[in-house]
Please model this.
Amino acid sequence: GHWGLGKLIALYDDNKISIDGHTEISFTEDVAKRYEALGWHVVTVADGNTDYDAIRAAIAEAKSVTDKPTLIKVSTLIGYGSPNKADTHDVHGAPLGAEETAATRANLKWEYGEFEVPADVKEVFANCVTKGAAEEAQWKKDMEAYAAKYPTEWAEFQQLTSGELPANWEDALPAVTPEDKGLATRQWSQTMLNSLAPALPGLIGGSADLAPSNLTLMKMFGDFQKGQYAERNVRFGVREHGMGAICNGIALHNSGLIPYCATFFIFTDYMRAAMRVAALSQAGVIYVMTHDSIGLGEDGPTHQPVEHLASFRAMPDIMMFRPAGGMETVGAYKQAVLHRKTPSVIALSRQNMPNLPGTSADGVAKGGYVVSCGCPEGKPDVILMGTGSELELAAAAAEDLTAAGMKVRVVSMPCFELFEKQSQEYKDSVLPPTITARVSVEAATSFGWDKYLGFQGKHIGIDSFGASAPAPKLYEEFGITKDAVVAAGKAVAGK
Model:
């Protein structure tokens, strides 16, 4: 309603029955008035059981209203024609049964057999085929005229609807080096979105009222609003679930648009159902989720995600990225764009972190990779694994352990799902099965790390809720420190 989407027509089957019984036991609101308040045009059909002309007229009226969407409220009798089950919840989610089916046939005077389609109905559908062929021919003629008049726009339309990404689109991603200034990964994310926007004409999205914090505005575009449909920044408002559902629709429309949406990582709790549907439906939505740990600081435990990384790693058919620095953020965005049939969650930090030597976009494509190894020709004494802002702790701890005479391998694990898709040979090359001395560090629950740590490994993280304090104080209080990683490394290696 806010956007004035005049092509949207929704038919609401108002049969006044729910699974528990008649809706009056729990639902008495005026749906038509609610939708009018939302800025919709509303049409009602009093008899949706037999008054086909009224339904046709309502649809025609809806099509004539072009400045707002239309809700057609159709009153029906659930189980119409059933002598004993009509207008009851018994027919809501269960078959009639043989006896009641026979009674319904008799009541409706339905003389046709099972799966027998009457001749007059076949004729109607045959006419639709003829009409459809004529409309398709006219559509093709219109497209040819459009292509001749607007060749540049037509080429872009063809690229989008083909489902193929533009040639060399990845060249738009910036080249980040260890010498570049360390930033919060949410800031690198902003750089990625603004670098990709000109190269990906289908990229569209926004934030649930947190754009200044999520840093998700594409600066060369305005806001997608009523009458401004060429713009690409979407203002979703405080509607996390609605935002997720809208992005699912955009992705599944198969128009070539690439939707992204953003909020604080903790607020995925409000949109988890929509994200699960995205995974289930192979909708390649990109979720830009900032403030990814206790590192967000003073907002406290209500805003600090602890279990969320593990929960999305547990969800099938969705990729959970937590990049460390600029190079890995490049890699996360590249993989998210490439995987058009798989949604991606990119968890991004509020606090700054360095662009560690050895991190890379190509490494992200593998899901897990060796960042540094103090034993190129031999076996490491210990493997330190980390993600996001804590990979820095693993790298610093490795320096201390190396100085103490130990051989240390540092492994970045930005995406468990991509790592699991690699060959066993590759996975064993990163995490040799014979090296059981392993430590993981991540400012989140230990849940899920056990498959890489084994029985002898240790996790440095947080298995409780957070607290309100500056980020450095929180890391110190919860023991997520370089010294804790060093101590764990020595312990698991028996040093």
The two ends are 66 Å apart (CA to CA).
